[in-house]
């Protein structure tokens, strides 16, 4: 089908973090770029836990921290292991993170995505909302030359399309870059937003007026591999679970049941006492990491963000927004240079992967390629939280007139009671060190 490619230089599908970053770079390069979003405004349909690591925004705006729509600056980070009756936390706080350039911030996606899309529009991108890309347009050779949309006059033509339509990307599947279904490498994220008066929230979590808390949890998903999180906003708390999709299907459990169990846990319930449910949401997360990323470019098409599986989900880290922005920026730059050279074929766009490898996006994924598998492995998920909690419970229990236990003997005894072999423990410790090296 001959198509008029002169309408735009590029079409970016999805005004999430990846799409807005890609459109921003193309607009900065002087290119005519359409930024297509199915929601009525950017972020209106987007679900995540709540923390954005902002340093990548250095490439978006100088002193971004003075204008970004922040809820709280994260100054406290905890990692928690739970059993049904016990918990242990490693709790770190640093006031160094309360001032620029900060570290993490909690922010609502409706605010953050709108702000970021505004940067692209400010640079000259054309934002088209309430419009769904329904099909890829191809010329006779098969090269992609735009998208069909659900508007009556809706074809948007351009020599290059950047698919930033998120996890389970319809466009990447249509281009043959993603398999039709891949439950093994996806988790389901479910989240509740609960309101608490600001003063109560700050007193309860020990926070200053703008300070925020980020808790990541393991051992709170019953028989299902996954984890939990709790983040503080100004006057709300976000609490949620991330659940391995195939395990969830096999278990017959409902995600909202599991979330209710977490909220009722003796270590969590007091944090939420008196709160009021404001919102429930759910969304898929690509967890495959480096080894399961698709091919990133084909003739006339690039993938960025979750559409390319670039979310880093590795236990102590659940970072997708910064990876989406990082990859979107590089995709936008690569597309602009390919347009300059007049070669938007797969060969002309092939530099994208190398450029990404030179940034944290692929460097982190590559280095941590074993981390998602390690964190989701059965012993880490279902046996070690109990081992650590039992060990500490015995250590902290004063059994006079019994003498205090020797640590080595206590570990052996606790492992034996839990049916864990010390050789497996040693092997996993080594695997963990390798995964996070
Ligand atoms: C429960 C949960 C908790 C998470 N917690 C965190 C966290 O705390 N911190 C973090 O950094 N990451 C977190 N993530 C991951 C993070 O949300 C994603 O990695 C990130 O949003 C990816 O950005 P993106 O721009 O690639 O895709 P998205 O944010 O999904 O944006 C895709 C955009 O494309 C639009 N779109 C889709 N299809 C079409 C179409 N056909 N036509 C037009 N528009 C379309 C959508 O409306 C959307 O605006 C979490 C994810 C989940 C599910």
From TrEMBL:
Pfam families: ETF-QO_FixC_C, FAD_oxidored. Its cofactor is FAD. Residues 377-437 form the FixC-like C-terminal domain. GO terms for molecular function: oxidoreductase activity. Keywords: FAD, Flavoprotein, Oxidoreductase. Gene3D superfamilies: FAD/NAD(P)-binding domain (3.50.50.60). InterPro entries: FAD/NAD-bd_sf (IPR036188), FixC-like (IPR039651), FixC-like_C (IPR059103). PANTHER family: ELECTRON TRANSFER FLAVOPROTEIN-QUINONE OXIDOREDUCTASE YDIS-RELATED. Belongs to the ETF-QO/FixC family. This is FAD-dependent oxidoreductase. It comes from Saccharopolyspora elongata.
């Amino acid at each position: 089908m001959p198509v008029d490619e002169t309408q735009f230089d590029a079409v970016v599908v999805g005004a999430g973090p990846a799409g807005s970053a890609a459109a921003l770079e193309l607009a900065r390069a002087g290119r005519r770029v359409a930024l297509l979003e199915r929601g009525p405004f950017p972020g209106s349909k987007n679900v995540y836990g709540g923390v954005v690591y902002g340093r990548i925004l250095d490439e978006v705006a100088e002193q971004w921290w003075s204008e970004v729509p922040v809820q709280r600056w994260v100054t406290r980070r905890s990692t928690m292991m739970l059993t049904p009756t016990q918990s242990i936390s490693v709790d770190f706080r640093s006031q160094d993170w309360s001032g620029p350039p900060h570290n993490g911030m909690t922010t609502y996606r409706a605010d953050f995505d709108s702000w970021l899309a505004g940067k692209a529009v400010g640079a000259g991108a054309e934002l088209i909302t309430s419009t769904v890309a329904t099909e890829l347009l191809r010329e006779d050779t098969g090269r992609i030359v735009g998208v069909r949309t659900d508007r009556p006059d809706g074809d948007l033509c351009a020599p290059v399309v950047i698919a930033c339509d998120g996890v389970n990307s319809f466009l990447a599947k249509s281009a043959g870059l993603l398999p039709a279904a891949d439950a093994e490498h996806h988790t389901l994220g479910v989240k509740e937003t609960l309101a608490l008066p600001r003063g109560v929230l700050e007193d309860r979590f020990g926070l200053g007026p703008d300070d925020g808390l980020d808790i990541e949890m393991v051992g709170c998903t019953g028989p299902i591999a996954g984890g939990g999180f709790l983040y503080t906003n100004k006057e709300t708390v976000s609490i949620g679970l991330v659940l391995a999709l195939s395990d969830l299907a096999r278990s017959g459990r409902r995600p909202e049941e599991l979330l209710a169990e977490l909220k009722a846990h003796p270590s969590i319930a007091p944090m939420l006492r008196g709160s009021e449910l404001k919102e429930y949401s759910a969304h898929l997360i690509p967890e495959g990491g480096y080894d399961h990323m698709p091919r990133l470019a084909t003739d006339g098409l690039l993938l960025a963000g979750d559409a390319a599986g670039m979310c880093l989900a590795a236990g102590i880290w659940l970072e997708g927004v910064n990876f989406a922005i990082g990859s979107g920026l590089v995709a936008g730059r690569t597309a602009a240079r390919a347009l300059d050279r007049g070669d938007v074929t797969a060969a002309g766009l092939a530099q994208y992967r190398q450029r990404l490898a030179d940034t944290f996006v692929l460097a982190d994924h590559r280095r941590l390629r074993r981390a998602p598998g390690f964190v989701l492995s059965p012993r880490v998920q279902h046996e070690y939280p109990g081992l650590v909690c039992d060990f500490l419970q015995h250590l902290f229990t004063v059994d006079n007139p019994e003498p205090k236990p020797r640590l080595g003997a206590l570990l052996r005894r606790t492992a034996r009671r839990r049916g864990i072999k010390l050789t497996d423990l040693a092997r996993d410790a080594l695997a963990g060190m390798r995964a996070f090296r």
